[in-house]
Amino acid sequence: MALKLPYIISFMLLLIFPFSATAQTYRNITLGSSLIANGNNSSWVSPSGDFAFGFQQIVTGGYLLAIWFDKIPEKTIIWSANGDSLAQEGSKIQLNTNGNFVLSDPKDQQIWAPSFARTGVAYASMLDTGNFVLVRNNSSLPLWQSFGEPTDTILPTQVLSQGTTLVARYAEANYSGGRFTINMQNDGNLVFYTTYFPFDGQNSDYWSTDTIGSGFQVIFNQSGAIYLARSNGTVLYSISSNSISGNDVYQRAILEHDGVLRQYVYPKSANSAGGRPMKWSVLSFIPSNICKSINQKIGPGLCGYNSYCVLGNDQRPTCECPSGYTFFDPNDNTSGCKPTFVPQNCGEELHETDLFEFAEMMNTDWPSNDREAYQPVSEDWCREVCLNDCFCSFAIFSNQNCWPKNYPVYNGRIDSGFAGKALIKIRKDNSTKKSENSGPKKKGDQTTLIITGSVLLGSSVFLNLLLLLSVFLGIFHFSNRRRKTVQPFPVMPGINLRSFSYKELEKATNGFKEELGRGAFSTVYKGVLNYEDPQAVAVKRLDRMVREGETEFKAEVSSIGKTNHKNLAQLVGYCNEGLHRLLVYEFMSNGSLATFLFEDPRPNWYQRIKIAFGTARGIFYLHEECSSPIIHCDIKPQNVLLDDLFTARISDFGLAKLLNRNQTRTTTAIRGTKGYVAPEWFKNMAITAKVDVYSFGVLLLELICCRKNFELNENCEDEEILVDWAWDCYKDGKLELLVKNDEEALGDMKRVEKFVMVAIWCIQEDPSLRPTMKKVTQMLEGAVEVSGPPDPSSFISSI
């Protein structure tokens, strides 16, 4: 049978590439050989001495198993095995006599091993190409090679086959996985991606060759050319076409921590430098402007939240904070920026508008996360809109276009080609008191009003005006009553949402007799709508509502009514009559999750899994998939209802849009319920969808353990808070304590561990570390791997 051409080419490449024992000299590393991590930088060196494999000390007591250029002073690392978990002093890499190749710590616990069946290795070798190979018995072909599992760097003669990925390190001296990857995809396209940092996985692409169906592999040849080849070996896309004598310089191409793939050269000697300095020099790089390339819709991007990117003269990006902001971490300019002032108070009726002003930044844009888009408007109008919106901290104005921004903003950049400006809302330096206009009237003003009123009352003109006004009000009242009589409570246009009269709902609830539940701002009653087929409903009477007009209330109800998801409680209709504001929902026969979860008998493990999935999907829909994204602000078991089949149905998901902005569930000026409230409510930070992620994390732990967040646990007498106890049990490897006496859960400990890890990621104090609800759903369902979470309380509390 004839071989296909791609396989013939791949076989020929195997024959000619320098990892073949017949193609170059090598020094065998025999079975039983080992290296110890200590201050001596012990290593195995290639025959020419150009490359070395061994331990490099990165921080005091922390070692990286790596490959590096050994003849240059910088000892530049081009491959590493354990960037996410540095080895302690005394750790060992050993080629065991049984053929295993293992990196272990001083207690002989495995840290890393190559991904292959670790048997049959005859020897190892550090080659002059920079490739470290493990060779099987009676073969010159490698069983495993570092070229096949690159980290962030490729070298001449190296090939990136389909399915191969480069991962940028987090920072220049931090070798853990960072924010960017390059993927030679199986579909033939070479794509640069941002990641869901700090999680693995591709987020948004920012550069690609657009060669779907055509690309075969990336080749870096010894002449310095880097190109995407077709299956027949011909050049499909030139990534770098530099022509260099491979004998005179060292070469490498690296995906750096800023997301740029740069090709470097280093003279091997002063004679070969040709006027170039004896250091790494950049030959080429892509993309050409990383600041403008990244436009992801989720995540902090290159520079972090509220920061902006500036491209320097050396074409390298730097991250800066706008006026009034400073870096979260002064030692990391990609950490994002926080305000140095107290943000605008959304709890005040006038929102302190007189205490804020705008700083201007020309040619600066944050293109993502628009609250609204207005056109054509003036700059003054744009300023006024943002000033009067307490949730607007930034606005972009350009060519009569105004884009107020949701907080936080991301993907900011200074771009000379952008003919506009950024308006950054900051607190005035001396703005410690309220506006004089918001306080009581001055005595002089009162006197003026009294004098003016006296003059009017003493004139016949005033009496005529009063008569006309009375007639007008009478006509308006009559016509309004007539209109209501002729058109009584129709179905809201565009959606199947009925407008009820107050008397209808009073009758349906038998005078609001059977109470189902009560909250700080509403009471829920059971009712029956007497149609041809009587329908049971839950009628929520809102007690503390925004004093909105009929049009505004209907607009908000319409937005809620357009939601449609199997994990949301369906809104049937509403009442907006006089001072009465009521919402009518479908009735849930199995009540709330709180009743189901915390009362005997305990629901079985698989029911709880189903409820966790459903709740996560419902919140994900609210955040990202419904027509008008909604932050719930009060995720808790009482707001998760269960239908006839015990399917989770989130309720109250639209009330955040209808309540007063200073409405609270507790005595603090926040929304939510004690125990489920995200820490940023207390830190003067802007509220994002991550507050719901935090609340879901607490609820998920309650589902796992079948206990309330605040409850003394007999196994851990010092722990009264579930989230703290869960972290301690996870950290100490005692997760079985969380599901003690639950045989079903104890028989499914792998899933229990995954769910606990997801919950701990959700309850991180730093909102930027929490995953999105889309990511949470993927992790719960197994579509995305879950990495080990950090201590959730490690967030700097001085924000």
From TrEMBL:
Keyword Signal: yes
One example GO MF annotation: protein serine kinase activity
InterPro entries: Bulb-type_lectin_dom, Bulb-type_lectin_dom_sf, G-type_lectin_kinases/EP1-like, Kinase-like_dom_sf, Prot_kinase_dom, Protein_kinase_ATP_BS, Ser/Thr_kinase_AS, SRK-like_kinase
Annotated positions binding ATP: 540
Reaction(s) catalysed by this chain's protein: L-threonyl-[protein] + ATP = O-phospho-L-threonyl-[protein] + ADP + H(+); L-seryl-[protein] + ATP = O-phospho-L-seryl-[protein] + ADP + H(+)
Origin: domain of life: Eukaryota
Occurrences of domain Bulb-type lectin (ranges): 20-147
Main localization (coarse): membrane
Record's subcellular location: Membrane
EC number annotated for this UniProt entry: 2.7.11.1
Leading EC class: transferase
Signal sequence coordinates: 1-23
Residue ranges annotated for the Protein kinase domain, each copy included: 510-796
Listed name of the protein: Receptor-like serine/threonine-protein kinase
Organism name: Actinidia chinensis var. chinensis (Chinese soft-hair kiwi)
